[in-house]
Amino acid sequence: MKDVRFILVLSTLVCNGEAFENLALNKAAWQKYPNVPQWGAYKAVDGLYTSLDLAGEQCTISGDGKSTAEWRVDLGGVFSIHHIFIQYRMDAFPFPWSRAINAYIGRFLGYSVYLSNTTNKEDGVLCFRDTSYTRATIPNPVNITCPYHGRYVIYYNNRTHPPYPEGYSEYAYNELCEVEALGCPTPGYYGESCSTPCPQNCQEGHCHITEGTCLGCLPGYNGPMCDKQCNDFKYGLGCNKTCGNCYQGEPCDHVTGVCLNGCDAGVYGDKCMIECQVGSYGSNCRENCSVNCGLPKTCNRETGRCTSGCQPGWDGITCKTKCNNYSYGPGCNQTCGQCLDDLPCHYVNGSCLGGCAPGFERKDCKTGCSNNTYGLHCTLTCGNCSNGQQCNHVTGICPQGCVQGYDGDTCDTRLKIMYVTANDQVGLACYGFLAPLIVSVLCNAWCLMRMLRKKRQHQMKETKADNTNSPHEPGPLYDDMEESPGYQELGEVSKPSTYDTLTQ
Fold first, then answer.
1. Domain housing 416
2. Most exposed residue of 45, 147, 252, 408, measured as fewest CB within 10 angstroms of its CB?
3. Looking at per-residue confidence, does 167 or 442 come out higher?
4. Nearest Cα residue to 182 out of 218, 213, 138, 141
5. 382, 369 Cβ separation under 8 angstroms
6. Is 171 exposed, middle or buried (0-12, 13-18, 19+ CB in 10 A)?
């Protein structure tokens, strides 16, 4: 019987073209419900299975009457496994005739085999679970393909959910005469004689024992051979992590996820996944929100825009720009008034530090003088404008002239007025007619006197020429004319007119 089983195992290895080593041989074994020492867990890995019955004491047998059965072997490290060989307990009858009468086959039905890196089977991979075998069809021994990596080979069976299929035993047992884990003894190799190195980026150097495909990639790589770097802004183990917000949308390191050139606006940290704390913003959160925000130091974490607007006197999305160009107030949305000498106002409250320009009130220098005042500080008084109008608040000039009795640009000169009756008006009309006539008469009289004077002088010259030796005294006559010329006499006749009187 031993020779038959040896030939079966050998033929399996030869057909595969590979010679794998039994990594479970003489390794530490454990079972959940031990029986007597001679049937201990170690019996399944001692390399002996020539006697498969109870008397041979080469098999592991667990405690009786249990609803679960569990056994495992520690390979002493994580190895690449090709397949698992199991020889189950049999009666002392030649195989295969013993199958029909072997009562222990029912204890084998429904079993499972796991390969795990921990002692917990749920942490590993399920290599096989029986869901369809019967007493007539279940193979014994059996080779279970399990091309994975692991440290613990775990056998498990249970009878916890009756009723069970026909042929199943009432209780669960470990009836294992030998368990072999066939694989490569040196990690990182695969193929015939386990001599071909696994691809460089296989996780922990583990690859499929026959195909060489990685059973997992190092962080930052993917593909069957783990020869492709993560892309599409992915990184890490299995390329299943997404990069953070790296500077200007750059990809992160495909292995670590670190942003090589820092973070984009609004985040910080080596992977740029942590949002800026309140009061900071920008790339790597290096900028501080402005104290001039409406709510100080509160802004958008990406742009720095003050979410509550600016305090009076500040402008811009970050409220770091002081008002200028003659503006003031929140967001610099108000215009300065008319400050003295065209100076800017205070950027916060709009007050003119040097006072208002002429014609404007001091309060905000936006309101023109009122109540008939004008000029600097509205201290000058105008008035007497026609129709009760306000004078110009800067110059004091009345826009439509003055009321009757006042004159000047600012209507502050009072006129002296003489009132004339109706008869006086008739007299004035007569004087207006006679005045030109009198002036004409006087002019004619003056011209006549001039002519007479010249004629008289001529006659005197002639008389003097005729009587050169006779003294002649023309002096008195000449003197009389000089002293009382006709012009002066006419001047004395002229009296002040009524018109002149009225205009005085």
1. 369-425+497-504
2. 408
3. 167
4. 141
5. no
6. middle
